[in-house]
Amino acid sequence: MPALPRLVVVTDWRLPRTRLLSALERALEAGPDVAVQHRHPEASGRLFLEEARLVADVCRARGRALFVNGRLDVALLVGAHLHLPASGPSPQDVRPHLPSGRLVSVAVHDANEAEAALGADLALVSPVFAPGSKPGDTRSPLGPEGFHGLMARLSCPALALGGMTAERAKTVRGAWGVAVISAVLEADDPREAARALLDACAAPRG
């Protein structure tokens, strides 16, 4: 089984395509612990596949992992791992249809979803803090303690998602790593931003 990433950079296709792909290229230079999740819920199926192929090329050129959000068919077409939204199929549903060695990550927001994540390789737990890329999000942030409570219910490692920065990452004890959008994609130097997040994840926590 492939090594689990400690930093997942989630795509934001509201950015100009060239800027997004350039930021991903830079972020992946931070090392093999960085992966990408292709997410674009507003896209048509054809556009989603077109974008997935572009991101897969970026990841493949650097030997980095790619997760496709919610689309088993697209993940198979581009040779990617699969990320399951909380409202999607379960890991047990999709696992028989994935080739050996493919990872399955899941979205987790509450205790019920944590229990339903059985069989996943990785969980993205959110929102730990108010998401910078979703100013209209009305969900109450979990905070570090809420994250820890959900993490304790999981049978797989957890990444902290939602408003994550390098400083905040140091406060989320027990996290395997973090998942981010704007903290890397909108940084002046996405590679350095990714490195700072990875360094924060590796820092000792009390």
Describe the 3D structure.
With 206 residues, this protein is α/β, with parallel strands linked by helices. It has a single domain (7-202), classed as Alpha-Beta Barrel (TIM Barrel). 37% of the residues lie in helices and 17% in strands. The chain is built from nine helices and eight strands. An eight-stranded parallel β-barrel has the order 1-2-3-4-5-6-7-8, surrounded by five helices. Helix 2 packs across helix 3 (72-78). The radius of gyration is 16 Å and the shape is globular. The two termini are 30 Å apart. 42% of the residues are buried. The mean pLDDT is 94.
What global shape is seen? globular
Beta fraction = 15-25%
Determine the mean pLDDT.
Answer: 94
How is the largest sheet built, in terms of strand order? 1-2-3-4-5-6-7-8
Number of structural domains: 1
Structural class: alpha/beta
CATH class descriptor: Alpha Beta
Q: Number of helical segments? A: 9
* Helix/strand order: EHEHEHEHEHEHEHEHH
Count the E strands: 8
Which fold does the CATH topology refer to? Answer: TIM Barrel
The percent of residues in helical segments reads 25-40%
Gross CATH architecture: Alpha-Beta Barrel
First and last CA, distance:
30 Å
